[in-house]
Amino acid sequence: MLRLSRGARLALMAIVGLILLFMYVPLFVLILNSFNESQISGWPIKNFSTKWWAFARNYQPIRDALLNSVLVATGAMIFASILGTLVAFAMKGFNFFGRGTVNILVVLPIALPGVVTGVAFSNTYSNFLTPAGFNIGYFGMIVAHATFCIVMVFNNVFARLRRMNPNLQEASADLGAGLWQTFRLVTFPQFRTSFAAGALLAFALSFDEVVVTIFTAPPGIDTLPLWILKEVGRPNQASVVNVVATVVILLSLIPVYISQRLTRAQEDER
Amino acid sequence: MTDTTTNSQPRSVRRSRPVSSYLLRRPKLRLLALLALPMTWIIGVYIFSLFLLLITAFWNVDPFTSLVSPGFNLENFSLVLTNPSYIATSVRTLLIALTVTLVCIMFAVPLGIFMAKIARPWLRNTLAVAITLPLWAGYLVKIIAMRLVFTEEGFFNWAMSPIGVRGPGFSVPIVILTLTYLWFPYMALPVYTAIRQIPPNLFDASSDMGAKGFTTVWRVVIPLIVPAMIAGSVFTFSLSLGDYLAARFTGGATQMIGSIIAANINLNPPVAAAYSMVPITFVVIYLMVARRTGSLERM
Q1: Which of A14, A77, A114, B273 is most buried per CB count within 10 Å?
Q2: Measured between beta carbons, which residues in chain B are less than 8 angstroms from residue A123?
Q3: Is the peptide bond before A255 cis (omega within 30 degrees of 0)?
């Protein structure tokens, strides 16, 4: 065991406490400020009220932004799920030349800075596609999001496939099942939990993303983070922004929570 | 003879699944079928876009029409590499990213030691969740939360007023703090995992040989967790390097590489494109160095 003096232990505890304060105080300040009656956020909060929540609920730009966020995240999730699963199957079943490259290609969109990815897409859309007479518009945002979400589904599905027993698929083929039938009846049931967990993470990642969105969102279209971004640029932060920010926290944490639960349930099964 | 065996087989098996049996015998074709769609997407859309960005970096903007016009000149690159303000921004960004990485390590090591070696199991698990959770609390949300804490009338100045301390206002130190806040879990988790994996008898050996707690940490723990630190630093470094919203909202007038790229993308896309190559280069160099140390295989 590591033997530390009493003083050293206390110092460590103090540091851990400081880290926890550092990680959670800002979030609590933000969430509490969504109940600030005053229009301008600040600290300490003098009067609490739910009026900004009520206001946000019926404020049309916020509702539009929420709808856009959900649409984009759902679209990105669907594309990323299909593409990520395909790559996972290729990486699992085959040892081929360029395997490492494929791995890097999947990780690259999330490894490179968001501003580079965003600028690259924006440049392609506005300096190449639009002059060529093709206006990609709303769909361009979904394409960009799906690209960096692939890795989420890939990681989850690949990790599960690696631990799966390949004999079952062979047995299924020996018994006369076709590839699709084997996939549907034998393979998919074994990895569908990881698949769902990965898809939910992809949804959360897309829902939360802002940098790539800045450059790929068509004019006049806001997602929730984009709406926050525009509002918070004003000199005094309005309390209604904190309401939307709290909603973003909740809506990103719920998919992640379910995803973790799914992964844990699967681990218990085995 | 042959006829009877053929006839005795069930009909459905004999002539079924021509596609499956064809594919089953051809693994290369199956691989191609699996990879065709994803690779078309990633290479055809993403890599191709990066390539077009590189091409655009050689173009210029017509000063009269302010439209992008194709061509070939190295002006944008020479601007990015020789203009003092661009160089200063590159160096500042690099230093910020390195400082963020160092600060993350300085906090991750004591936290990891506490979690792995001192905390009871329930506390260890609680802390593990507590550190992972903010990772998903929203990137922009965390930036504006930091903005609320460090603003003039904010939480920090309120909490510190009894002891007469005032925050520095929005500036480079707050940017570093915000970036640390954003990416700290990426460092804390691998470092904690690595410390947990150190065999306990190493600690016994160290203390048998007379080393005190700090000596053991410095001479035994730190050298063993360097690969984990490098793995974590890939995230803290490259994510900080490309960030610009933290600087925009908590940095006052602080500019980072991303700020300049973002400001130029509509006004002068070729300059933005040329400057984008700077963070790409930094990240690729860092990844290659990290790869040579063999730390990436742990990720």
Answers
A1: B273
A2: 49, 52-53, 56, 265, 269, 272-273
A3: no
* Residue B146 near residue A26 (C-beta atoms within 8 A): yes
Residue A46 CA to its chain's centroid (Å): 35
> pLDDT tens-digit profile of B142-185?
999 999 999 888 889 888 888 888 888 889 999 999 999 999 99
Residue of A14, A103, A253, A195 whose CA lies nearest to B291: A103
> Contacts from B226-229 at CB under 8 Å and sequence distance 24+?
B226/B293, B226/B295, B227/B194, B227/B293, B227/B294, B227/B295, B227/B298, B228/B190, B228/B191, B228/B193, B228/B194, B228/B295, B228/B298, B229/B105, B229/B108, B229/B187, B229/B190, B229/B191
Band of pLDDT at residue B8, cut at 50, 70 and 90: very low
Q: Which residue has the higher pLDDT, A92 or B175?
A: B175
Q: Among B276, B246, B244, B270, which Cα is nearest to B258's?
A: B244
Domain positions in chain B: 81-298
pLDDT at A235 over 80: no
CATH classification of the domain holding A158:
1.10.3720.10
Structure tokens that stand for B191 in this block: 């470092």
**C-alpha to C-alpha distance for A127 and B60, rounded to whole angstroms:** 12
Residue A29 located in a structural domain: no
* Token pair in block for residue B180: 């640390």
Q: Which domain holds residue A103?
A: 59-269
DSSP A34: T
> What is the share, in percent, of chain B residues with pLDDT greater than 90?
47
ipTM: 0.87
In this complex, is the C-beta atom of B91 within 8 Å of any C-beta atom belonging to chain A?
Answer: no
B81-298, CATH topology level: MetI-like fold (1.10.3720)
Report the chain A residue with the minimal C-alpha distance to residue B137: A249
- Is the CB of B154 less than 8 angstroms away from the CB of A245? no
CB A178 to CB B272 under 8 A?
no
Q: What is the DSSP letter of B265?
A: H
pTM for the model stands at 0.87
Q: Does A34 fall in a domain?
A: no
- What confidence category does residue B297 fall into, taking pLDDT thresholds of 50, 70 and 90? low
Number of domains in chain A: 1
Chain B positions touching A3 (Cβ under 8 A) are 203, 207, 212-213, 216
Q: In this predicted structure, what is the pLDDT of residue A11?
A: 92
Kindly report, residue by residue over B256-282, the tens digit of the pLDDT.
Answer: 999 999 998 888 889 999 999 999 998
Cβ of B269 under 8 Å from any chain A Cβ?
yes
Please classify residue B128 by burial: count the beta carbons closer than 10 Å to its beta carbon, then call 0-12 exposed, 13-18 middle and 19+ buried: middle
Are the beta carbons of B43 and A105 separated by less than 8 Å?
A: yes
Give residue-wise pLDDT tens across range B36-57: 999 999 999 999 999 999 999 9
